[in-house]
Amino acid sequence: MKNSLYVYQNGELKRKDNTLQFCTVDGEKRDIPVNMVSEIYLFGEVSINSKLIDFLSHNDIIVHFFNYYDFYSASLMPKKSKVSGKVTVKQAQFYLDDEKRLQLAMKFVEGAGKNIYRNLRYYNSRGKDLEEYMNEINYHLKNLDKARDVPELMGMEGNIHKTYYKSWSTIINQEIDFEKRVKRPPDNILNTLISYLNSLVYTTVLGEIYKTQLDPTISFLHEPGDRRYSLSLDIAEIFKPLIADRLIFSLLNKNQIQDKHFSQELNYLYMKESGSKVILQEYNKTLQRTIKHKDLSRNVSYRYLIRLECYKLVKHFIGEKEYEPFIIWW
């Protein structure tokens, strides 16, 4: 099974014969079998060259770059091996048709909202009093079809998340002050965790899109723009409640992540390497977790659920089957 490679140390990542080698600044060398790597995450100051880039491209390996504060910076994408002019044209046509775009964007918000609701239902059944928040989110979901355009729909999505985040102080056992979502820069433990894990989900989704005929730059809920793969943002909305949010709740309620894993600098909080390593270990476990698929009648991993979502979108664009978002069924 291929796994993600996480590099924290400073040094050089290079091709050695037909495999990978990482050399630290102290001269330590580590050989890494390329056939065991699905994608690479670089958190340290790592040098790479065109020889390595060409090698990674031939092996369909994406490289994700993170800065000193573990904020996502960029991704180095190989040339897509799965391309379809037909799918790209159809995908663009759905974006250009205001009604079709709105209906598809509505599906993304519906999927995200219903998965948020299921998170609340899960914890409500385990002794957390979340009925008020569940009712409020249900109200917002029932009114999604009243949105006249995508900006209005995004406002409704914002109301769902606003209600959702209010419930977190009830779900989480640790004493953490969390009044609102602050992104740039994150100002407390929860905002830092949300930003970090959301970026991981984004890169995971991007990797799964790459394995299909979808164009990652043509999106429907989020406005397409320069320098970002906005379709990843659309699809990530559906999976963040399952993958990112549930992991945050688990990490904090099991005290795997605490104040000691963070450092305050000026007006923002950033994660130490020790905290990042804990999260990445648990994040990988989450992606590898399997569930019996209700339609396929076989076990699939959480990561593969994302791929299946991409396939569903392809079928939607070519008119084979209308898209319905992934909803947690267990």
UniProtKB/TrEMBL annotation:
Quaternary structure note: Homodimer, forms a heterotetramer with a Cas2 homodimer.
Domain of life: Bacteria
PANTHER family noted in UniProt: CRISPR-ASSOCIATED ENDONUCLEASE CAS1 (PTHR43219:SF1)
Keywords annotated in UniProt: Antiviral defense, DNA-binding, Endonuclease, Hydrolase, Magnesium, Manganese, Metal-binding, Nuclease
Cofactor: Mg(2+); Mn(2+)
Organism of origin: Finegoldia magna
Binding site for Mn(2+): E157, H222, E237
Gene Ontology MF annotations: DNA binding; DNA endonuclease activity; hydrolase activity; metal ion binding
Organism phylogeny: Bacteria, Bacillati, Bacillota, Tissierellia, Tissierellales
Function noted in UniProt: CRISPR (clustered regularly interspaced short palindromic repeat), is an adaptive immune system that provides protection against mobile genetic elements (viruses, transposable elements and conjugative plasmids). CRISPR clusters contain spacers, sequences complementary to antecedent mobile elements, and target invading nucleic acids. CRISPR clusters are transcribed and processed into CRISPR RNA (crRNA). Acts as a dsDNA endonuclease. Involved in the integration of spacer DNA into the CRISPR cassette.
Gene: cas1
Designated name of the protein: CRISPR-associated endonuclease Cas1
Family classification: Belongs to the CRISPR-associated endonuclease Cas1 family.
Pfam families for the chain: Cas_Cas1
GO biological process, one term: defense response to virus
Leader sequence segment: none
The protein's Enzyme Commission number: 3.1.-.-
